[in-house]
Design brief:
Radius of gyration: 18 Å
Shape: globular
Number of helices: 9
Number of strands: 9
Structural class: alpha/beta
């Protein structure tokens, strides 16, 4: 299988002399959802910023479909969509205009844009908000704007930072079902989350970070084998690693 995202022995951070993440290595394949989990300060957000191209690694490499952010910046960025933990929006644009702008930046034709827009509005129960300004939305509705914009372009890779924060139960269900559909259509998903029960249910593989390093990765069965507890939940395995009861 051709690799989608490859993070190879990456070290880096905000200060090149003192890397926050050290020798990070993992991959995301087409058609799978991978959870990146760890305590606050473990290095998850720094890792995501390296993948987004906002920070350049001190060492190592990151490629998406073989492109890197330095040599092929436009091709690299066209391979993914990012859903941030904190919604970002333009105060002067309505929901419709946000979605139109997203479609224009990715070159979607009008018919495809209209079809996807109406489907997303229905899925996320936002049909009556189309001409409204996100400035007046709740946090959950602003998060739905971010999610809809990412799903609109149907990229090969979704990068999602704490996507469930602020969503109501129906919004969470709509997002998870949409990600499952994207996975079934061949996209890969890299998702950070602290809600491990949801990750265990929906994700195919897991990457556990601690103190800037990856301490374990694999499917739930592989993590159980590595930890020596055959019936452990993801939450139990995670706690064992971050408390140092299992050595990487």
């Amino acid at each position: 299988m051709k690799k989608l995202l490859q993070v190879h022995q990456v070290s880096g951070g905000y200060d090149r002399r003192h890397p926050i993440i050290k020798d990070i290595y993992f991959e995301v394949n087409p058609g799978e959802i991978v959870a990146l989990i760890g305590l606050n300060g473990a290095g998850k957000s720094t890792t995501i910023k390296h993948i987004l191209g906002l920070i350049q690694p001190v060492s190592g490499s990151i490629t998406i479909h073989g492109y890197n952010a330095i040599d092929h910046p436009e091709s690299y960025r066209s391979q993914f969509a990012f859903i941030p933990e904190t919604p970002l929006f333009y105060q002067e644009l309505t929901l419709r205009e946000h979605l139109e702008l997203t479609a224009m930046t990715r070159g979607l034709d009008q018919d495809l844009f209209t079809s996807r827009m109406h489907k997303l509005l229905q899925v996320f129960n936002m049909e009556d908000k189309l001409e409204h300004f996100p400035e007046h939305f709740s946090k959950g509705m602003r998060q739905k704007l971010m999610i809809m914009s990412a799903l609109m372009v149907a990229p090969p890779l979704y990068i999602i930072d704490e996507p469930l924060m602020g969503l109501d139960p129906l919004g969470i269900r709509s997002l998870l079902q949409s990600l499952e559909q994207a996975k079934n259509e061949g996209s890969g998903v890299l998702m950070t989350t602290h809600i491990l029960s949801t990750a265990e249910r929906y994700c195919d593989r897991f990457i556990i970070m601690h103190q800037g390093r990856i301490v374990a990765h694999g499917t739930l069965d592989e993590l159980r084998e590595q930890s020596g507890v055959s019936d452990a939940t993801l939450d139990e395995i995670y706690i064992q690693y971050v408390e140092g009861r299992v050595k990487p």
